[in-house]
């Protein structure tokens, strides 16, 4: 169940990051990924190591967004979403 939810969130984030969605509001894509990460908190809070990495990544992504480096923010948040997805998948096995 958790894996399906994360996969759905990742697919949604990936679709939002496509060029057809990115034409008008690129900063909202970074925001959407940050919200996806925030929504997945229950998936990574049980692991102190992953929690620390996600927190650092979110801070870095917010700093990049504030600097206007939207592409870098998107890359950072998508890596973090994949890390969360991989960690929750590994915990299931």
Question: Would you write up a description of this structure?
Answer:
- Keywords: Signal.
- Residues 1-22 form the signal peptide.
- With 93 residues, this protein is mainly alpha-helical.
- It has one domain.
- Helix content is 85%, strand content 0%.
- It has 6 helices and no strands.
- It has helices spanning 2-16, 19-22, 26-39, 41-44, 48-66, 70-92.
- Helix 1 runs antiparallel to helix 6 (70-92).
- The longest helix has 23 residues, at 70-92.
- The model has no long low-confidence stretch (mean pLDDT 80).
**Number of discrete domains:** 1
How many DSSP-defined strands? 0
- Overall geometry: globular
> What is the distance, rounded to the nearest whole angstrom, between the alpha carbons of the first and last residues?
13 Å
Q: What is the residue-mean pLDDT, rounded to a whole number?
A: 80
Computed structural class: mainly alpha
The amount of beta strand, in percent, is under 5%
Number of helices: 6
Report the sheet with the most strands, covering strand number, pairing sense and barrel closure: none
- Determine Rg (CA atoms, Å): 13 Å
What string gives the helices and strands in order?
HHHHHH
What are the segments in which pLDDT stays under 50 over at least 5 consecutive residues?
Answer: none
The portion of residues assigned to helices is over 70%
Signal peptide: 1-22
Keywords: Signal
Question: Which features does this protein show?
Answer:
globular, single chain, 85% helix, 93 residues, mainly alpha
What's a concise summary of this model?
This protein is mostly helical. It has one domain (2-92). Helix content is 85%, strand content 0%.
């Amino acid at each position: 169940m958790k894996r399906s939810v994360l996969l759905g969130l990742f697919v949604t984030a990936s679709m939002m990051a496509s060029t057809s969605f990115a034409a008008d509001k690129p900063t909202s894509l970074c925001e959407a990924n940050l919200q996806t990460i925030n929504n997945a908190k229950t998936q990574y809070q049980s692991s102190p190591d992953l929690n620390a990495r996600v927190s650092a990544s979110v801070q870095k992504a917010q700093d990049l967004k504030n600097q206007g480096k939207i592409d870098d923010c998107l890359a950072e948040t998508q890596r973090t979403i994949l890390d969360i997805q991989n960690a929750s998948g590994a915990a299931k096995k």
